[in-house]
């Protein structure tokens, strides 16, 4: 992906673009926008040969995309400061996540329906926004209408029932914290799928 200002304008809310672009320029990481993934919205990694990399799923609405992006930048900055001596989502990451978010934690960037649960979430952020039901539901209201019409949250599917997500079919299993352990019907392999993932019943 070409990391230019126009790319940031495509994925972030207009008022957040300058700040998010400056974070990329300041920290100089490889930023990739990826196909949708079942198990995560984004991630951060570091390789000696290639440096820092952040990925974010391309199908997120602008508000969810921004939250995920800042989440991963906080991992990068925390890693830079502490290396591997701290928990991935420990108190250092939580503090950095909130600090990086403050410049855009405004009603100019986020609608009130998202801003209020987002402020609450940032008081003690978890590893995934999908574990915060009020924030997850508020973000979902801004997803593409076609998804909302044809899909339902995985939480509404009974255990043992089959569903499709991202073109692959699974059987729903038991809840593991904020994700369900599901079995892919074609391979028998098991994957964790976010509890609030939008799926289509078979």
From TrEMBL:
Name listed for the protein in its UniProt record: SprT-like domain-containing protein
Domain SprT-like: 25-100
InterPro entries: SprT-like_domain (IPR006640)
Species this chain originates from: Flectobacillus rivi
Top-rank taxon, per record: Bacteria
Pfam families referenced in this protein's UniProt entry, alphabetically: SprT-like
């Amino acid at each position: 992906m070409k990391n230019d200002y126009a790319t940031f304008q495509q994925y972030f809310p207009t008022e957040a673009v300058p700040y998010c672009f400056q974070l990329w320029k300041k920290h100089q990481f490889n930023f990739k926008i990826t196909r949708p993934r079942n198990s995560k919205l984004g991630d951060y990694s570091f390789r000696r040969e290639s440096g820092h990399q952040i990925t974010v799923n391309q199908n997120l609405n602008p508000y969810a995309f921004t939250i995920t992006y800042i989440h991963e930048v906080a991992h990068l900055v925390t890693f830079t400061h502490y290396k591997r001596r701290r928990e991935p989502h420990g108190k250092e990451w939580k503090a950095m996540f909130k600090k990086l978010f403050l410049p855009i934690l405004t009603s100019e960037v986020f609608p009130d329906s998202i801003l209020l649960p987002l402020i609450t979430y940032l008081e003690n952020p978890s590893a995934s926004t999908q574990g915060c039901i009020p924030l997850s539901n508020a973000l979902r209201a801004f997803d593409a209408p076609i998804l909302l019409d044809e899909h339902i949250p995985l939480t509404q599917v009974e255990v043992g029932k089959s569903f499709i997500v991202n073109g692959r079919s699974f059987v729903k299993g038991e809840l593991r914290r904020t994700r369900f352990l599901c079995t892919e019907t074609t391979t028998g392999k098991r994957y964790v799928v976010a509890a609030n993932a939008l799926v289509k019943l078979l």
